[in-house]
Amino acid sequence: AETQALEEAECAQRELEDKVKFPAEEAECEHKEVEKKKPKMNNFNKATPIFNIIVPCPFQYALQKLSTFDYIDLWYFSPPGCLEASKFNRSNTDDAFYVFKIGNVLTLCSIASVKVSVMGLDMRVEGE
Predict the structure, then answer these.
(1) What is the pTM of this model?
(2) Which of 117, 113, 88 is nearest to 98 (CA)?
(3) pLDDT tens for residues 47-66?
(4) According to the model, what pLDDT value does residue 128 have?
(5) Which domain of life does this protein belong to (predicted)?
(6) CB 72 within 8 A of CB 117
(7) Where are the domains of the chain?
(8) 91 Cα distance to chain centroid
């Protein structure tokens, strides 16, 4: 009778340990899965030099035209065009929209794809 009671106590102890151990193991597995899904930062070389110049980018208008395969003057990609873009490209045009009407349909379009540089127009007039 004592051995049976002892075995039952050991069995109950094991079940209790399993109940406590299982959620802890499950939480640990979930934590490992979350860690696997997080983006990892690549190693970097501390000896890599940091450039002290900023390469000027063309107008957002020009980049938008390129992405839609529309015609765009080469002036927008020249050093003077990129310099002007760096001077005047201080607004956040991604959050501003232009409303235009085609037939009975109103359409929203990003200002970046609508606004033309005055210098680009001047170059076109001079070149024609």
Answers:
(1) 0.35
(2) 113
(3) 888 777 777 788 888 888 88
(4) 47
(5) Eukaryota
(6) no
(7) 60-127
(8) 19
